[in-house]
Prior knowledge:
The complex is a heterodimer of chains A (about 325) and B (about 110).
Chain A: H1 2-12, H2 19-41, H3 46-55, H4 60-67, H5 83-125, H6 131-163, H7 176-206, H8 209-217, H9 222-254, H10 261-292, H11 295-298, H12 301-322
Helix pairs in contact in A: 1-2, 2-3, 5-6, 5-9, 7-9, 8-9, 10-12
Chain B: H1 4-7, H2 11-20, E1 24-25, H3 26-36, H4 45-57, E2 61-67, E3 74-80, H5 82-103
Antiparallel strand pairs in B: 1-3, 2-3
Helix pairs in contact in B: 2-3, 2-5
Amino acid sequence: METIMVYLENMFAGLPKTPEVEHLKQELLSGMEDKYLELKREGKSENEAIGIVISEFGNIEELTAELGIQPVSAEEAVPVLTEEEAYAYTTAKRNAGFWIGLGVLLCASGVAFLIFMDTLFENYATSAANRSVETGAVLGLIGMFVLIAIAVGMFIHSGMKLERFSHMEKGFQLPYTLKMSIQHSRESFALTYRIAIITGVCLCILSPVFIFAASSINDNYASYGVSAFMVMAGVGAFLFVYYGNIQGAYTNLLEKHQLTVEKKQEVKIVRAVEAIVWPLATAIFLFTGFVYQRWDINWAIFPITGILSGSFSNVYHIMKSKNPS
Amino acid sequence: MISSDVIRGYNDTLILYMLLEGESYGYEISKNIRQLTEEKYVMKETTLYSAFTRLEKNGYIESFYLDENSLGKRRTYYRITLPGLDYYREKCEEWKVTQEVVNLFIREL
């Protein structure tokens, strides 16, 4: 009897789940069950009975035509993802994560380089001519902009690489075996991911130690500590971005098959806010550093910005889900 | 066994005929059709239930639930309505004419 139920489920799989359709399905099931039980009573074997019932089922189109409903057509149905596509996607996400992570690290290094060069020339120029102070700033700025330019190139490159998979946002289906295989990959990646994230968090938390250490030796050295802090936090960020992208690829494949319009909007707004907040934080950081020489405390703007932008995204998410208008 | 294409226009008539004797339910109707035709015509499940849907929509039959005492199973029963009777008579007339017409073109070879 279970075979018959599965058969009927399959026949109705492509139909909309309206009360009318559900009722009709129950009626058909009841009729088929009557027939099956009678055939068994007549002494037919299980297989024979099932075979006869299924052969006399008929044609599902006959029902859909009567109800005036269209079975979900092949065009509207979401495409099935092939194994090649799924693996191409995870590879592309991994590569994109690598280049974006490296780009973030380069940006942080660029800022670190500027602070380093400026401080270096300032410390050695106390006795020498004023000109070399400017040389340090100019060299630092050139270095920073070169590094940031390379980073921007990397961002654009990885963005374009991922463009190819934008059709996946419209939704897709995963064949059962592929789903199992991806789930397996995700499970074996879980430990690596956890270690990477913990390491990244530790690096970020520990990075201000450089500033304290350097300023305890000599107040003038505080800004060297800031450079080291930036690089170390940058390495932490690289770990987040790189491993986060790999994990994100698995999540995208296995969980959220279709981003809702609201969710898409949420992601967009959160990204837009981050795109303003982080450069602003960096500008304030550099300004307070160079103008007021407060390298010893102004690094705190980054963790503060991090917490604020994180809470903004959470608060926004909660507000949105409270009024689903 | 005859093909369902030939008989398509008369599935409703067959079902209405079965209901002339009294109320009945899906499987019983299809079983009786099978027996009456000596298994020359077996109505497919989807044909039967789309006919029920159509006939009920047109008001030719009405459905109601009845509990089977022995099995405790609730079944959907059908009974023919007055418009259903009229429709049945119409179809009988139509068939007579159809038969006459087609017969004009039938001869032994």
